[in-house]
């Protein structure tokens, strides 16, 4: 199956971000937390299954997808691009497939609570695949991009503070954004993930979405510094976008253990 390539990058203004915050958007006007000297304690690690080297991606041709609680089951919810994407007019609804059976797909959903899944008819989406995946170690401040069995990029990162932690679990890239100011706190590019802050409901007027992005504070890498997002150097996030072209739906495994995730 063909890897879904990003056809465009949305240019957006990410407002209300300081050097100590992540990609999340919130109405929380309180001061940012101080840098924590210890690791996050408010983010229980979701169960991370054995990682596979080839992942299936489901892309919807429409802006709304009906999700069921089981194959041929009851409607669980409607996923609307306008509710989960920053620029829905230029970004398709995309899902990481967890399981496929008899014309149905169990997919990870870009909704709360983190790790939510549901079933969609395979006929409602277009399937593609990718051999890229991202593994994030919160304890050792390391992000590694794999292509199949090969680690193609390994880089230091900054992650969430003790009271605004980066949540562990299985996520995927839901959108790619290009900040209007490349020398700002989000750097040159930002990937919005399917996960949310475990402690913030909103941030600067929107959902508290977790992301991976560049930074104008490279000295903060290797520290607990953000409001939950994953920071990396601008040249690295640019490399992931322009050289590797990580597709929407690429799985992102965030582990609170320093040991690498097991690969199949």
Which helices and strands, and how do they pair?
Blueprint: E1 10-12, E2 55-59, E3 64-68, E4 75-80, H1 81-84, E5 94-101, E6 104-108, E7 117-121, E8 126-130, E9 132-137, E10 142-147, E11 150-156, E12 159-160, E13 169-179, E14 190-196, E15 202-203, E16 206-207, E17 209-213, E18 224-226, E19 230-231, H2 234-244, E20 251-255
Parallel strand pairs: 1-13, 9-20, 12-18, 17-19
Antiparallel strand pairs: 2-5, 2-8, 3-4, 5-6, 6-7, 9-10, 10-11, 13-14, 13-20, 14-17, 15-16
What would you say the CATH architecture of the largest domain is?
Answer: Beta Barrel
Q: What overall geometry do the principal axes of the alpha carbons give?
A: globular
> What is the first-to-last residue Cα distance?
20 Å
Quote the CATH topology of the largest domain.
L,D-transpeptidase catalytic domain-like
What does this structure look like?
The chain is mostly beta strands and about 260 residues long. It folds into 2 domains: about 10-45 and about 130-255, L,D-transpeptidase catalytic domain-like, CATH 2.40.440.10; about 55-130, SH3 Domains (SH3 type barrels, Roll). It has 2 helices and 20 strands. The strands form 5 sheets. Strands 1, 9, 10, 11, 13, 14, 17, 19 and 20 form a 9-stranded mixed sheet that branches. It has a 5-stranded antiparallel sheet with strand order 7-6-5-2-8, with no helix packed on it. The radius of gyration is 17 Å and the shape is globular. The two termini are about 20 Å apart. The relative contact order is 0.27.
């Amino acid at each position: 199956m063909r890897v879904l390539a990003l056809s465009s990058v949305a240019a957006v203004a990410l407002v209300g971000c300081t050097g100590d915050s992540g990609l999340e958007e919130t109405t929380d006007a309180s001061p940012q937390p101080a840098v924590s000297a210890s690791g996050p304690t408010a983010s229980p690690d979701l169960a991370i299954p054995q990682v596979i080297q080839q992942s299936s991606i489901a892309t919807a041709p429409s802006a709304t997808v009906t999700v069921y609680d089981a194959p041929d089951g009851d409607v669980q919810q409607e996923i609307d691009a306008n509710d989960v994407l920053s620029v829905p007019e230029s970004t398709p609804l995309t899902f990481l497939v967890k399981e496929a059976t008899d014309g149905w797909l169990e997919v990870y959903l870009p909704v709360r609570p983190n790790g939510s899944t549901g079933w969609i008819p395979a006929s409602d989406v277009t399937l593609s695949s990718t051999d890229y995946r991202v593994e994030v170690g919160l304890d050792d401040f390391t992000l590694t991009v794999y292509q199949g069995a090969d680690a193609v990029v390994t880089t230091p990162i900054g992650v969430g503070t003790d009271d605004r932690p980066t949540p562990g679990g299985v996520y995927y890239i839901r959108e790619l954004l290009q900040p209007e100011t490349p020398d700002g706190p989000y750097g040159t590019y930002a990937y919005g993930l399917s996960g949310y802050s475990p402690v913030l409901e909103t941030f600067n007027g929107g959902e508290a979405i977790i992301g991976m992005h560049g930074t104008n504070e490279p000295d903060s890498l290797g520290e607990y510094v953000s409001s939950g997002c994953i920071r990396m150097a601008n040249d690295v996030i640019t490399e992931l976008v322009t050289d590797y072209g990580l597709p929407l739906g690429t799985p992102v495994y965030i582990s609170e253990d320093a040991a690498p995730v097991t690969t199949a």
